[in-house]
Design brief:
By secondary structure, the chain is mainly beta. It folds into six domains: 6-19 and 46-304, TIM Barrel (Alpha-Beta Barrel), CATH 3.20.20; 316-388, Immunoglobulins (Immunoglobulin-like, Sandwich); 398-472, Sandwich (Immunoglobulin-like); 484-555, Immunoglobulins (Immunoglobulin-like, Sandwich), CATH 2.60.40.10; 568-635; 642-748, Immunoglobulin-like. It is built from eleven helices and 50 strands. It starts with 5 loop residues before the first helix and ends in a 19-residue tail after the last strand.
Length: 749
């Protein structure tokens, strides 16, 4: 292997030509008698470092040459003595503003190439922390794992002198297994030792020669994963982890910003100002520090006291026996603590979500702390408020009308409660309604339907629980008015579940009459042209409390047979068709293979529910009756479901005015129908030959969604598929109007 490149050879030649000679520095170190056992049980014999296979030696040797060469010029002498001219450590550095206000620690890193170190002098010179090389992997093809010959001497001496210690390992791993083996090697070498600082993974190119890692052809992602494999493995032994690399490696050879999200980053950059966008907390800014107790120069670093803990304030509460809290930005998890009377705090659980069921716990109170798991440690933020365990809110709230302008609210009892407070809310304003020792309370007042109520329990110590869920209070009348329609000579209206009955009003040329009924239909007098509407009512204290009136239905006579054409289509669960005003009902037919129509059902509405649609041809007729005789419309178009569902409707692009949508095409489909709902039900928007469509007229809309269905036209039978997924263009399921109900009948308007 070529030991030094031609470039460095030229430097040496220049020194020799100048009549200078390099003073040899002793490289002999203490013999190491300790043995390291790998996690696989394999005995790894510790060998003395081989300088010809040690990338760290090449860097050290070149530094000697460079320093000697610099001493030949005035500029070099100034640079060499810059730190001395400036006085204290790093006084010439410009620090990144992100570290403003943080404490800074100046520390050194050493290997056997610093020779014998007087650690007491080092500490006296103001150095209180050190990163010591534990070992390295040889950069030759064999990739031998080797101990730094002075590691044990250095770590014992530094600790004896009172310095805080971390370690680094110089890698030349070219596989994930080798990276993990290096972590195992370090962990076993560290048996019996504790560390104050992380274990750093030193990943870099071999200076002034070519190493096995340089030749391996690994991608940026693969080299990044080498770092992760080492760091995760060393963390499994209980150590903090970190990565050491120069700027070029962090920016181009490995994904430094990604690694910085999980591990400490130590940046090597010999300059007075570091411009690195990723997360880091230590900067090796020079290799020419002059420290008492060390012969020759040494690397010097500045470490910033970065706080990795979450900063979000945690607020905790208990509802129905569940402790909940707000999410902390970037937190990896949360520790739940129990406490008895504010003292004797202990861990109850460690969770990743923002809730924990404490109903089966026995602590007097609870609090929560968020943490970030970073570099092998949990970094905790501030602990939340302590929540007293008497927080279970009253549950199972129910309400019923107890008279005109009166409602009664009831709830389940809460263990430990001696009473309950009842509150009402109107237009965001909360009012105290009263308190009781029981589990029900009557609220009185007008327009109670505009209010909500909630309940709090309290115990003998005056502690109040969390609020119960809010419940809407009913007014005197049913909540919704019925919707009415004429089906030939029969007036029908929607059922109102809570109604005691219905008040039917008829207006014949200004003459008004009313009739109370309990059914939801009424046969009108065909001899009269009249307007009809319906109100639902609840009877309270002998008074009929009515809703608003339904829509008005005007009866102007009936055509026999019904007048109009039935247009048939399919829904997600059967058949739908257009309404015929004169029809009192509809007959559904299956069409046999010989073309005959076989009646299978009679329905009042415009929807027939069936699962038996595959391969079946259907048609529908409207009908009415008079004097015992039935009259029918012409048969509708015939329909068969022969195409599959349109799938994966998706949004391609969107502006304030329009959106472009697409979907998967169906084999054999000649046309697609696009239906649009802007909050008032689905309507046919357009028919499209291809698999894309532009939806316009969206400016100012606060809600919009579409569905698509495939068709194949035929003069005898319309063949169609099922509807696609509902694609929300503006808003979502929760943002649609509260009264918006999906009616498949809208689709053929």
């Amino acid at each position: 292997m070529k030991f030094i490149k031609a470039a460095s050879g030229a430097v040496i030649a220049g020194i020799i030509c100048a009549g200078m000679s390099l003073t040899a520095i002793a490289e002999k170190t203490d013999e190491i008698s300790k043995e390291v056992i790998s996690t696989g049980g394999e005995s790894i014999a510790v060998t003395n470092a081989e300088k010809n296979d040690d990338g760290g030696y090449l860097k050290y040797k070149h530094n000697l040459i460079a320093k000697k060469f610099e001493s030949m010029s005035p500029a070099g002498k100034i640079k060499q003595n810059y730190s001395k001219i400036c006085g204290t450590f790093g006084s010439y550095l410009t620090h990144d503003s992100r570290f403003d206000g943080m404490n800074r620690t100046y520390l050194i890193d050493v290997s056997q190439w610093q020779g014998k170190i007087d650690w007491k002098k080092v500490k006296k010179d103001g150095i209180n922390e050190v990163i010591i090389r534990l070992g390295y992997r040889g950069y030759g093809s064999a990739g031998t794992l080797m101990m730094d010959n002075n590691f044990y001497t250095n770590i014992d001496g530094a600790k004896a002198a009172g310095l805080k210690v971390g370690i680094y390992f110089y890698t030349q791993a070219i596989s994930y297994a080798e990276a993990r083996a290096e972590a195992d090697f370090c962990a076993n070498a560290l048996k019996g030792y504790t560390l104050d600082l992380p274990v750093y993974y030193d990943i870099e190119s071999v200076d002034y020669d070519y190493g096995r890692l340089d030749h391996a052809g690994l991608t940026k992602a693969q080299k990044t994963k080498l770092c992760k494999e080492f760091c995760n493995r060393i963390e499994s032994y209980g150590y903090e982890s970190g990565v050491y690399a120069c700027l070029n490696w962090l920016n181009n050879m490995i994904n430094g910003p990604e690694l910085g999200n999980d591990y400490k980053i130590w940046v090597a950059a010999y300059m007075s100002q570091l411009n690195y966008g990723g997360i880091y907390d230590m900067w090796q800014y020079s290799s020419n520090a002059d420290i008492s107790g060390i012969s020759g120069s040494v690397d010097i670093n500045v470490m910033y006291d970065v706080d990795y803990s979450p900063t979000t304030k945690i607020n905790a509460k208990i509802e129905d026996g569940v402790l909940t809290w707000n999410k902390a930005a970037g937190a990896d998890g949360y520790t739940v603590y129990g406490t008895d009377n504010g003292s004797n705090t202990y861990v109850v659980a460690d969770v990743t979500g923002t809730s924990f069921d404490v109903s089966n716990q026995s602590s007097g109170g609870y609090c929560v702390a968020a943490y970030n798991y970073y570099s092998g440690k949990k970094h905790y933020g501030k602990t939340s408020n302590i929540v007293d365990s008497f927080r279970q809110a009253p549950a199972n709230l129910e309400v019923y009308r107890s008279g005109v302008d009166k409602v009664t609210v009831s709830w389940s009892s809460v263990s430990g409660a001696v009473g309950y407070e009842i509150y009402t809310v109107k237009d965001g304003v909360t009012s105290f309604a009263g308190k009781t020792e029981g589990t029900s309370f009557e609220i009185r007042g007008r327009n109670l339907q505009n209010r909500q109520a909630f309940v709090k329990a309290y115990n003998k110590n005056g502690l109040r629980s969390e609020s119960s869920e809010r419940i809407d209070l009913p007014g005197n009348t049913p909540e919704v008015a019925p919707a009415a329609e004429l089906r030939a000579n029969r007036l029908v209206w929607s059922s109102v579940p809570e109604a005691d009955g219905y008040l039917l009003t008829r207006n014949v040329n200004g003459k008004v009459s009313q009739l109370a009924v309990t059914d939801t239909s009424y046969y009108v007098d065909e001899s009269l042209t009249a307007d009809y509407y319906v109100q639902a009512y609840i009877e309270l204290d002998g008074t009929k409390c009515c809703t608003e009136a339904s829509n008005v239905c005007s009866f102007k006579g009936v055509n026999y047979p019904p007048k109009g054409v039935v247009e048939l289509d399919t829904s997600d669960d059967g058949l739908i068709w257009s309404k015929i005003d004169d029809a009192i009902g509809y007959v559904v037919y299956k069409v046999a293979s010989d073309g005959s129509e076989v009646e299978i059902a009679r329905v009042d509405g415009c929807h027939y529910k069936t699962n038996d649609t595959a391969g079946t041809v259907f048609c529908v007729k409207g009908y009415n009756a008079k004097d015992g005789k039935e009259f029918f419309t012409e048969a509708s178009n015939r329909v068969i479901i022969s195409l599959p569902e349109v799938t994966e409707a998706s949004l391609v692009g969107k502006t304030d005015d329009y959106a472009v949508i697409s979907w998967n095409e169906i084999n054999g489909c000649s046309e697609y129908m696009v239906y649009l709902d802007k909050g008032d039900g689905y309507k046919l928007y357009s028919s499209v030959k291809g698999s894309m469509a532009m939806i316009g007229d969206l400016k100012g809309a606060d809600f919009a969604r579409v569905m698509i269905k495939g068709y194949v036209g035929d003069e005898n039978v319309t063949s169609c598929g099922l509807f696609s997924n509902q694609l929300y263009i503006i808003g979502n399921e929760k943002s649609k109007k509260a009264n918006d109900v999906f009616y498949y009948g809208d689709l053929i308007k």
